[in-house]
Design brief:
9 helices, alpha/beta, Rossmann fold, 252 residues, 5-stranded antiparallel sheet, single chain, 6-stranded mixed sheet
Length: 252
Amino acid sequence: MKILEMNHIKKSFGDKVVLKDINVSVSEGEVVSILGPSGSGKSTLLRCATFLEHIDSGEILYSGKSVVTTDGGKAVYPARSELHQAQSNFGLVFQNFNLFPHFSVMKNIVDAPIVIQKRDKEEVYQEARELLRKVGLEDKENAYPCELSGGQQQRVAIARALAMNPKMLYFDEPTSALDPEITAEILRVLKSLAAEKMTMAIVTHEIDFARAVSDRVIFMDEGLVVEEGTPEDVIDNPRNDRTREFLQKLHV
């Protein structure tokens, strides 16, 4: 089953066309890595998929249900309640963590499930402790973000996204703000999620990681999907000149 479908997505900022007729889908249990040079439209695609940006035209579906449609060449968004319903399908982990600085680690994780999803407090706290164990931070539940390293903050952000029980997770350059040693911590967590068949779409520059965990790799350049396939196809045997050039620059 496809969790996400994006059909004929177009997006411009003023005169600058950022996404040019993009078609992307992510199936249940699949890990899709999105690669490409800076400015290729990767992060904008993720922001459109998560409704942080409005598309100009195209169609967005979650779990087979149409959320955004196009009428008369313009995208039509649903009422806020319907949009919130669609948002419950996914969690989003940003590159700069976006934790609430005045909340403890535990409160950062439990606040939304209790307040927004109206779930049982005891059950949520129990799940949150389990998630902290999963990301290796069981001793940090009473700490505040300012007391944590960048890698620890990113792991809290992952636990917070998982606490909402989403069908899929989006990661936008989850390691770009981190040094190599800390990057390895985050990649370990993502690999364990991939092993549990968590559905994920990951914008990344970590080519070795993309090769190791992805079921499918999408290479974008200048607002287009230039190449798409297994890691073996796209990373090890790219057919497109632009993909080859990009990977050569990274010495892959």
